[in-house]
Amino acid sequence: MASASLQFFAFILALFGVFGDITATLLPNWKVNADVGSNIITAITQMQGLWMDCTWYSTGMFSCTLKYSVLSLPIYIQAARTTMVLSCILSAFGICITTVGMKCTKLGGNTDSKSHACFAGGICFILAGIFGLVPTSWYTREIISDFLDQTIPESSKHEPGGAVYTGFISAGLLLIAGVIFCTSCFKKQQGAWIYPPKQHHFPSTEEESNTGYNLKDYV
Question: Where exactly are the transmembrane stretches of this chain (predicted)?
Fold first, then answer.
């Protein structure tokens, strides 16, 4: 019962991780630059994401421009696009597989099949967390290096936006969920190896009859 509750808790964490992963991939605020200018009336907030760049004015106007050209993008943005999409796909596969493999569901067949499916789902979550953690870390490193570069003007410097923090949190949730799923299955298999089922050997009726026959001969 405790293992089933732990798996359900890990599944909830994985759900939050998947939603956060998809949200971080689509959000346009990976990099944020607030330029107040001469007065607050002309304040402009520039946001850059993986798929579009947006500008928000203090007057309430909001405009976005899609990034159509892939080859013109920096290498870290191209890598972030690829790895974040892979992370979303793997986490979605993990949700489907663990739904079948969890103990609280009636899918997946016998206990061994459910255990294997649960372990495979945990591996998907771990890979999804790694694929989500790498681009957010790389993207944050590029933002910090540009911010500390003295040759870049202040108006062109950015800070990490909400999408980066969402990506970090989602990757952590997916990693935790994957470790919990894999550990629960591993403990069960380890217990089966340490304490194998006892085999009871019963003498056959033929042996008993032969033994009885031999004793009668000696009497």
Answer: 75-97, 117-139, 163-186
